[in-house]
Amino acid sequence: MSAKRRKKQQTTKIQPKRAKNLSPGTVSYTGKKTITNTQLDIIDYSKEHYNRFETHAIEDAFKYEDSTHITWINVNGLSNADDIITLGNHFELHPLIQEDIVTTNQRPKIDEYEEYLFIVFKMLHYDDNELLTNEHVSMVMGKDYVLTFQEAEGDVFGDLRERLEHGKGRIRGVGADYLMFAILDAVVDNYFTVIDFLSNKLELLEDKLFGDKEDPNITEDIQELKKEILKIRKAVVPLREVINRLEKIETPLIEERTNKYIRDLYDHIIQVNESVEIYRDMIWGLMDMYMTTISNKMNEVMKVLTIMASIFIPLTFLAGIYGMNFKNMPELDFKYGYYYLLGSMVLVFFAMIWYFKRKKWL
Amino acid sequence: MSAKRRKKQQTTKIQPKRAKNLSPGTVSYTGKKTITNTQLDIIDYSKEHYNRFETHAIEDAFKYEDSTHITWINVNGLSNADDIITLGNHFELHPLIQEDIVTTNQRPKIDEYEEYLFIVFKMLHYDDNELLTNEHVSMVMGKDYVLTFQEAEGDVFGDLRERLEHGKGRIRGVGADYLMFAILDAVVDNYFTVIDFLSNKLELLEDKLFGDKEDPNITEDIQELKKEILKIRKAVVPLREVINRLEKIETPLIEERTNKYIRDLYDHIIQVNESVEIYRDMIWGLMDMYMTTISNKMNEVMKVLTIMASIFIPLTFLAGIYGMNFKNMPELDFKYGYYYLLGSMVLVFFAMIWYFKRKKWL
Amino acid sequence: MSAKRRKKQQTTKIQPKRAKNLSPGTVSYTGKKTITNTQLDIIDYSKEHYNRFETHAIEDAFKYEDSTHITWINVNGLSNADDIITLGNHFELHPLIQEDIVTTNQRPKIDEYEEYLFIVFKMLHYDDNELLTNEHVSMVMGKDYVLTFQEAEGDVFGDLRERLEHGKGRIRGVGADYLMFAILDAVVDNYFTVIDFLSNKLELLEDKLFGDKEDPNITEDIQELKKEILKIRKAVVPLREVINRLEKIETPLIEERTNKYIRDLYDHIIQVNESVEIYRDMIWGLMDMYMTTISNKMNEVMKVLTIMASIFIPLTFLAGIYGMNFKNMPELDFKYGYYYLLGSMVLVFFAMIWYFKRKKWL
Amino acid sequence: MSAKRRKKQQTTKIQPKRAKNLSPGTVSYTGKKTITNTQLDIIDYSKEHYNRFETHAIEDAFKYEDSTHITWINVNGLSNADDIITLGNHFELHPLIQEDIVTTNQRPKIDEYEEYLFIVFKMLHYDDNELLTNEHVSMVMGKDYVLTFQEAEGDVFGDLRERLEHGKGRIRGVGADYLMFAILDAVVDNYFTVIDFLSNKLELLEDKLFGDKEDPNITEDIQELKKEILKIRKAVVPLREVINRLEKIETPLIEERTNKYIRDLYDHIIQVNESVEIYRDMIWGLMDMYMTTISNKMNEVMKVLTIMASIFIPLTFLAGIYGMNFKNMPELDFKYGYYYLLGSMVLVFFAMIWYFKRKKWL
Amino acid sequence: MSAKRRKKQQTTKIQPKRAKNLSPGTVSYTGKKTITNTQLDIIDYSKEHYNRFETHAIEDAFKYEDSTHITWINVNGLSNADDIITLGNHFELHPLIQEDIVTTNQRPKIDEYEEYLFIVFKMLHYDDNELLTNEHVSMVMGKDYVLTFQEAEGDVFGDLRERLEHGKGRIRGVGADYLMFAILDAVVDNYFTVIDFLSNKLELLEDKLFGDKEDPNITEDIQELKKEILKIRKAVVPLREVINRLEKIETPLIEERTNKYIRDLYDHIIQVNESVEIYRDMIWGLMDMYMTTISNKMNEVMKVLTIMASIFIPLTFLAGIYGMNFKNMPELDFKYGYYYLLGSMVLVFFAMIWYFKRKKWL
User: What family does the entry list (chains A, B, C, D, E) (predicted)?
Assistant: First the structure.
């Protein structure tokens, strides 16, 4: 199918707003963030040249497309479907791609087209309330341009932009494929940060668990952590497959020298993945550990009860005996009867103590 | 084997009613719903043309078959085997297909024939009692027709029909293969709805678990949820394989441009599948969580008992001592003996309180 | 190796009785059932012709072998090795096959030979004591004959024989390969029956678990069920592989039109297998559920104890105070001292009740 | 690399004693058994001929090598490295093979060389103390000889030798490859015996678990069983791979007719493997079962306590009331006060009994 | 890409210090150990020749590169990035390799380049505090040289150096590929040592668990062990893949005769891996075992409590009865009332003892 024909199809098909059960290929934002103004952040660079500006007018983006420079258009805000459609049609993006860009629960994937690659991935970060949020990001990589679509402005690409501006690293001298790699590399680097944060939370929880103070919320905390690790997995596992496939794709869009970097990136995502699996194991194990600490505490409680009751119940019984009002109870008239009884009570007391010591309960 | 020969075989072989151990290829409805009248819902459309009517007479369906339009015949009610056989013979469906159409516990699968594709899948929905029910649906996709067979009229295809009627999306301009895709897409979309419902039930159960009020039915609720997730899995996992194979089938029945859509559909079913696996993990984990909450509660109960008993049993013992009737008990004659004793009892009381405070039980 | 040579080898090698560590290829019955008389049930049929008779004389079977009809020889009783050897040598069965026929713990498998296929499978049924028993069955399918070997007469093939006799279904008009398929189909159908029975037992156990009455045997029942599901798995899993391989075998013995039926059979065995896995999961989960019900019950027991003890121990202490015999206890002489005390006891009582109500223990 | 060159290398390289971190290819016994005299058991046979003798002189073995007979040299005792080296050099075994022969913790494997196959496997048996011990065995199979190396004389090959001597089975008439198969077959047969023994231990443990008598060592017994099953797995799993590869090797050393037997052997080892997995599951499940029996017992203990305490604590409180010494306690002066109280105590008693009966605790 | 060009790129790109989000290919040490002086340990050898010296000047290493001898340069200390860059540039190492050398959390991997192989692996050892530490090691193997980069001087290569010096084994006569193998072999051997140590810790923990003395830290110890086994897995699992790939690589750098040794190495790493999995299973099982021992102990505690309470609470009640002050209590006036009561108390006492004996609680 030629790009021309595809373009035509989409212009006839796309609807302004998409509800459930709409036709596949309909572009309708499904996320929560509502930035009414789509904001474009355009960087245009070559080895010698660097230019960056921001705009809200989609059309401003187009004048850079045909230049000999590499153009990186970062779109913030997906709620205005018209803007996405305008941009998408200009770059001749397939309707399904346009749909995926605004479908925020689309899982990470890679689609190969003749003239561009389309990659969906997730950006993860802990927000101010220490809640893990994930952001839907799409990327289109063409011959001399890269488009990225975010729900809201993130801070993950900051360093990358700086490197672009100051010409650090090899980034300025090479093509759009290297830029694509650098963006993915920034994302994977970010995963490491997220996992470090999670690992801290896990260690805090472990300390809480082994600590003296009881915290009835630990079960909920563990459950929370489980959900977070599942969220991370949901972002990482498919991205691993994406990068794996990226390594194997045969396309003129990716130069041979970039492959080494993608292979490196694949190593990193595997490392992320392994860490996720390990932390998953650890979190799942936490529940067992918590169970044993609960049982241990109950054991201690029971011991205190048992020791107190076992010592004093028999003694109370003895006292009860001599509290009876029988007429004929000779012991009551013994001169030292009371002292004899006190003495035997002390004996019983120490016998019990010795018994519990021997059982190592004391 | 030519379609002619196949047709012959089936007309001699098919029996009116099929019990267990009947010959394979026998058409006998195995479900519970008994709609005596098979109901046909026929949509005939092309880019310019749309026509829909309902009928109970099988033969009415045949006049549309040879037209240049796409014909979608939806059959509601599988209990009348004769109707299915009549229809099946007309479209030259293999006896095994006719059997699978009415065998409601047939698992999802795809069979390739020279002149049509046969797909079995399950429709899931929660009924009015919040019970998950699954409905057996079969689909035959030929060159210019699609047949679907349902046990009872469902509401999943409503939006699709509307899109067909109003010519929304690309659906009217393309072939039967796209209609097949659109039907499967509606089914997978429906799975998302079902999973959302399950996820709500899961969260309610979690709240119940962490809530104060004890609910002795939680174990049964968890078991119920386990069964539901297994039911969903049973529908989703084989459908994933079906769509995967659909993607790879090389058949003139599916146009090349539809492949992109099927790939997209595969992405969706994988997403459903991952969600199912995640919820499965969560539900299985619930049991552990419930166990810890039970243990936590028992711990609390035990502590109350231990504190009460540990404080009052020794005190009662002390009171017991001075309730004894020994003649010679000098303390009893002390002027302030009673007050001294009360004082030491208060001391013991606070010593115990301090002890339990230090142990963080209070 | 030609069939001739093979025949020679076996006639020199076979021993009358085989103990452990005998040479491989030795035919020695390893099962428990001892039917001294091997019983043959021979059905000879073609499209127009049907003939069935039973015999104890092996040689009677041979006169039908060369006819143009399909011959199905069902052998009941494997304890008489000589009979098996006679029959096996006549049909030129490889010594290893003869060994496998009488080795009742041989796992399901398929062996391809040039002139026949050899399939081992297991028949499962619950006996009168509701114990799951498995029966070793072997089948040899040659160009125009099928041999089946059972330990004891089963009832699984009854329907099949009837269909053969009355010419129902397609079975009479087609070759030995279809008969082989029909036999396997009857076996897989039987697995569904067995699983249904197991599912009933599982549900009964679940009801018992959630029921009021305590049943100390539940653990043993669960263990029993575990063993049964493992037994079923041991029969089903390898048979699935057998049928899978049967689907892929390239042999002139299986006609192309039978392949469709075998594929269908494969669908069924996969369905059986999935059910087994699901029930396995359910049974393994039962233990956890049982554990929580035990803990729940213990929780309830503990609460009763705690409430009774927490209410009455302090009250008893109060009574103990005023049971002391101190000379100087002014309260004892108060006119309404007793009533004041009774009043405060009632207060304490209701305070405790209120406390436990607030804790939702009452 | 030619056999000549290999031989040269090894004669220069081999060291008398090998400690950790020695050069790879160094022959140094790592086991525990110290039979100072290497003992050779040589069987030389052909269809008509059988000769067996034992010796301690390695050189005695060499005269048989070039004969037209099949020679099986079984070496007992691996502690004398020089003997192994002498023998190994004579048969031109690669230094790595010589190392593997004496490295008793080498896992089962198969190595293909041009002129021989080298197989390492484990022999398992329960010793007199019912401890599972594994013995390292290596086998070299050349054109007309088989070498086996054992740490100590085992009894597994006894039947095989007898069959060789008396010409039972097909063993005498065929080549060294069949002997290799027969040896492996004896080993796999032996695994069945070991698993039977384990299965008996498992059943005994289960009986213990469900029995009345408490046995505090059950946890240790289960742990022991776990270790044994892991030990068996460690022997069986890699041997399965070895036999699988043996089936697929293309080498002139194995005749085509032996393949059928190896396939059979593979069936057997798979069966062993499945049994191991099933028993593993059972043993792992034992822990859960034990846990529930403990909890059940605790439940019973708690019930006795609760019933006793709930009945007698209130009664004791009642008695305590009327043990008080208040001046003004009118009930004390009632004529039948005592009997009224006794009556109400009996009432309370039966009320409690009724309560516990209703709760099904009695 | 030619080596020349690569060299150029790296000299322009490398930064002195690398923080997070630096450009990929930037060489910046990420570990903790700060040895300011990079230390080189150079061994230069051939069959007849052996020379070793240490230096801190990177340039000293270069004069040996072009000799006909094999040169092994071991670099201790990675904190001085300039040194690594100087060395790396001299040997024309790709910037990504230089980055990996100093990135201490890089997971084990193998990268093939035209002129060298690059392998990353981990060295494990227990430090003086019995903490498991892992050290990042990289190795570059070229035609006639091997470079190894360690964070700090380890002792794992000591034996290897000795063998090199004294010409033991085949090591001196063969190429750099064999040296590479010998280094990896030393590392895998070291893993066995580490696992042995872990296995000892595991057994100690098991003894603790089954021992009488309670140790509240057992949960933490198990958790610690879990983390260690995960650490080992993280080193072993990817190295297994590395060696597997090493076995399959087709490169002129590895001579054919070395392949046999690599295959052997692969056997060893699989053995390590299996042990790791087994110990992992064992450690995970420990938690369950610990849980049962806790429950068992609680059971015992509960029994003591129940027995004491059940015996003495009824007796105390009896004593309470006759401690009441009713006017009309005829028993009190019986001559032997007291003795009758004592007698019945003894009866009750022994009845309880008998009851608990029958229940096997005593």
Answer: Belongs to the CorA metal ion transporter (MIT) (TC 1.A.35) family.
Mean pLDDT of E145-149: 93
**pLDDT for position D1:** 38
Q: Is E109 helix (H, G, I), strand (E, B) or coil?
A: strand
Contact present, B297 and C295 (Cβ < 8 Å): no
Spatial distance between the Cα atoms of C140 and E41, rounded to a whole number of angstroms: 71
Q: Is the pLDDT of residue D6 over 50?
A: no
Which residues 77-106 on chain B approach chain C with CB closer than 8 angstroms? 94, 96, 105-106
Chain A residues in contact with B186 (beta carbon < 8 A): 21
Alpha helices, H only, A322-336: 330-333
Six token digits for residue E49: 């020749």
Distances (CA, A) of C165 to B9, B13, C144, C171: 20, 16, 18, 10
**Mean pLDDT throughout D186-201?**
90
Q: Are E315 and E351 in contact (CB under 8 A)?
A: no
Low-confidence ranges of chain A (pLDDT < 50): 1-19
| Interface residue D335 vs chain E (CB under 8 A) | yes
Q: Collect all residues of chain B within an 8 Å Cβ-Cβ radius of residue C296.
A: 216, 219, 294
Q: Give the minimum alpha-carbon distance from A222 to chain E in angstroms, rounded to a whole number.
A: 16
Q: Which residues from chain C sit within 8 angstroms of residue D202, using beta carbons?
A: none
Residue B106 CB partners (closer than 8 Å, separation 6+):
B100, B120, B136, C267, C271
CATH number assigned to the domain covering E300-358: 1.20.58.340
Rounded (5°) CA angle E236-D134-D84: 90
Q: Is the pLDDT of residue D69 over 90?
A: no
Could you tell me how far CA A100 lies from the centroid of its own chain? 21
Q: What is the pLDDT of residues E193-242, one digit of tens each?
A: 899 899 899 988 888 888 767 677 888 888 889 889 988 998 998 999 89
Q: Superfamily assignment of A39-292 in CATH?
A: CorA soluble domain-like (3.30.460.20)
Give every CB contact of residue E339 below 8 A, 6+ residues apart in sequence: none
What stretch(es) of chain B map to CATH 3.30.460.20? 39-292
Please say whether the beta carbons of A234 and B278 come within 8 A: yes
Residues from chain A that touch E222, judged by Cβ atoms under 8 A, are 289
**Pair E319, A318: CB distance under 8 Å:** no
For residue B103, the one-letter residue type is T
pTM for this predicted structure: 0.80
Q: Which residue of E has its CA nearest to A304?
A: E301
- Name the closest residue on chain C to residue D310, using Cα atoms: C308
Tokens standing for A339?
A: 């002292």
E336 reaches D (C-beta below 8 A):
no
Q: Which residues 277-316 of chain C have a CB within 8 Å of chain B?
A: 278, 281-282, 285, 288-289, 291-293, 295-296, 298-299, 302-303, 305-306, 309-310, 313-314, 316
Q: What is the DSSP letter of C132?
A: E
| Tokens at B269, concatenated | 């079913």
Q: Which of residues 142-181 of B touch A (CB under 8 A)?
A: 159-160, 163, 168-171, 181
Q: Which residue has the higher pLDDT, D130 or B186?
A: B186
CB atoms within 10 A of CB D313: 22
ipTM attached to this prediction: 0.73
Question: What proportion of chain C, given as a percentage, has pLDDT over 90?
Answer: 30
Q: What is the DSSP string of D58-109?
A: GGGGGGGTTSSSEEEEEEE----HHHHHHHHHHTT--HHHHHHHH-TTPPPE
Residues in chain C: 362
Give residue B164's Cα distance to chain centre. Answer: 28
- Of D246, D227, D143, the residue nearest D188 (C-alpha): D246
Task: Provide, rounded to the nearest whole percent, the portion of chain B with pLDDT above 70.
Answer: 90
Q: Is a pLDDT exceeding 70 seen at residue C100?
A: yes
